[in-house]
Amino acid sequence: MSLASWFRWNEPPSRISQRSPTEMVVETLMMELSWQIKQAEKQQRERENEYRKIKTGVDYGWLVSYPKHNYDISQGERLQLEDMCTKIHPSYCGPVIVRFRQVVAEYEPEAQEVSRLFRSVLQEAADKIKEEEEAKKLARQWNTKNRTTLSLATFKSRSRISPFISDIKTISEDVERGTQPTRRVWSMPEFRNTK
Q1: Which residue among 27, 80, 88, 164 is the one 20 to 30 A from 143 at the CA level?
Q2: Torsion of CA 58, 62, 68, 69, to 10 degrees
């Protein structure tokens, strides 16, 4: 028996589970949310320590031990946020995270407020995606209308380029032939050449 069979070196590596892009977006965005909640808790504890330090004049922060994670969003809210995350296209995942970080840095929320900010950023991104899809749809409709309009315009322009092919009588044709023009029904005054 060979040593390689014991260690199973020649077996193909196990495949990573194939997840859909939507699942990866949901997982990524929810990980970002939980990380931001932890950061908000940490900042909140630091603010409380600073306040206590200023109030008492003594720093007992080294003596206090905090639990790693106090606040957690409810299961119903988590499911709602995950459902909103499924509406985000994978190409918008990065910009949504960047926007969420900007909003968190701007407002410096407490841990309870982070999920509401996340919801507002997701809603903003979903609205933007919907607007862009509608704009693309309108652009496609406009392009198809323009193609038909352009084909009609080229047809009309051909008749303008070659006016002598049409059966419309013009004054210039009558002058060239030396005949008397017929009475015009146009709104312009009639000019006759007297010889």
Answers
A1: 88
A2: 0
The domain ranges of the chain are 21-144
Q: Which of 30-39, 75-84, 117-126, 141-150 has the lowest mean pLDDT?
A: 141-150
Report phi then psi at 192, rounded to 5: -115, 140
How many CB atoms neighbour CB 112 within 10 A? 13
Contact 103, 117 (CB under 8 A): yes
What's the DSSP call for residue 178? Answer: T
First to last CA, the chain: 124
Please return the burial class of 185, using the count of CB atoms within 10 Å of its CB with bins 0-12, 13-18 and 19+: exposed
**Residue 117, number of CB atoms within 10 A of its CB:** 18
Mean predicted lDDT score pLDDT of the chain: 78
Query: Which distant-in-sequence residues (6+ apart) come within 8 Å of 33 by Cβ?
Result: 73, 81, 100, 114, 115, 118
Condensed to tens digits (0 to 9), the pLDDT of residues 26-59 reads 999 999 999 999 999 989 888 888 888 888 877 7
